[in-house]
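ok so for the tutorial part 2 we go from a plain amino acid sequence to predicted structure tokens. step 1 is just haveing the sequence, like this:
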Amino acid sequence: MIETDILIIGAGPCGLFTVFEAGLLKLRCHLLDTLPQPGGQLTEIYPKKPIYDIPGYPEVLAGDLVDNLMKQIETFKPTFTLGERAETIEKMENGHFRVLTSHGTEIQAPIIAIAGGLGCFEPRKPPISNIADFEDKGVEYIIKDPEFYRGKDVVIAGGGDSALDWTIFLEEVANEVTLVHRRNSFRGALDSVDKVKELAEAGKINLITEAQVVGLNGNGKLEEVVIKHKEHGEKNKKTNHFIPLFGLSPKLGPIADWGLNITKNAIEVDTFDYSTNIPGIFAIGDINTYPGKLKLILCGFHEATLMVQSAFKIIYPDKKLSFKYTTVTGVEGFEG
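step 2 — the prediction. this is what the tokens look like for a chain of 336 residues:
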């Protein structure tokens, strides 16, 4: 059984920064996440993708931001339970919460901070009957390391930003890149659309529109895809990898059954401190909702900062909270 001051459900950027803000108030944190490593979407979905809206960083790779956050919280010695999902919750007689995970791990804390991003993700899969047979054998729904495709033949399907961005990026990595989209128009940024079309016109990528990948063939691993064109019918194309980038479907999972007020798959909070309708449970980052909500990492950082102030007052109702600037005291010498 694990005991802590704040149980943070979600080890993405907002959850990690919560550790820092809580640490300044000398509050202990334990993080629980379904993913096998900290970082949330930044690590799992696009670790090599640049982020441009983090203060002080004109540009930072998502994976590097996670590394910096982990370094920032080292001094506060957070603990982790990774690869497990929060399943059930109950309020104990002492007022603390008792959470059980999908693996039976028991965690007790007076405060719960839900920082689960958009929830648990499931890829939107194309309706290909045997696609499961080739998952991790040539079919990938997320690009974690572009170098994995070095010198390979790749077929990407999709018409949004992810499909366009990775087509542009992998053109310099893979042996051959083919982008298949069911329409002539794209949903992504205009500059990305123009770049993809320029690459196609220059013969650097294959661009097939008004078409879909409808079949997969191979013996133990993917060897070719079947592309069905609106006018020209079906044609087989040899490839090493098929990457359908149709987005991810977020789901709250068991948290949806905890009695929280939920609107459109997001948890309602009070913007005073991002508390939920259940005293002692807070929600920060993309998983919450309120009037004027913006789903930005920096907004989640702000929410975490205010949340831990209320958490401290709940844990220590008789103790005076004295806020001090870390620029004056330094992290090591901070007195909560």
